[in-house]
Specification:
single chain; about 230 residues; alpha/beta; globular; binds pyridoxal-5'-phosphate
Amino acid sequence: MHNLENCLTEVTQQLHQAALAAGRNPHHITLVAVSKTQPASAIVQAHGAGLIHFGENYLQEAQSKMASLQHLPLVWHFLGPLQSNKAAAVARAFHWVHSVDSLKIAQKLSAARPPSLAPLNLCLQVNIDHQATKSGCPPQQACALALAIAALPNVRLRGLMAIPNPQQPAPAFAALRLLMAEINTHISPALDTLSMGMSADFACAIAEGSTLVRIGTRLFGARTPTHP
Ligand SMILES: *Cc1c(COP(=O)(O)O)cnc(C)c1O
């Protein structure tokens, strides 16, 4: 039977080992539990086990869970492809958006983020290994795009995100780290977040410098087939 507490213990151990092996402080790596397709009860259980950060891909599904979990001090991360007609609602409901890949989407998020709230944290998604089917901006455009997004009000560009080809993630993770270092020679305040690593490759991502891993299946078990 699936047991969230056991899975969390395993994932946390692996995260710590990967960090220590790379000479890094495990506490500098944020674990985002990807709860898409999971019921609110699974999030309550995960919060009880010590998790605070949750990742969702589908706005409506996330909104209904948020409504029933308002009493919990959770941090919500939007990870899915972002259509512009959903940007305003995402900007109001979430604390982070990892899937920004155009200035147009960033502008919509910025315009819709209530100034009374803390700035919305953004990651620029980069198609770091030039995949045909994946979203994300081309790496050559990332620096100019980052500078433009960093200048917008009500949002704070925190870093870069990528979902590399699972066949060969390590060089892609390394390339994303180098790209952030390059951007940081042009931008202030410096970007501090490398959102990279999922269930299958988070140890590799940590070895390559990830500061935030997004883990679903390894914590919650296989997803129901209602969503891909
Ligand atoms: C679904 C998803 C994840 C989690 O994937 P797992 O393989 O289940 O860990 C992470 N990041 C993004 C962007 C996702 O869409």
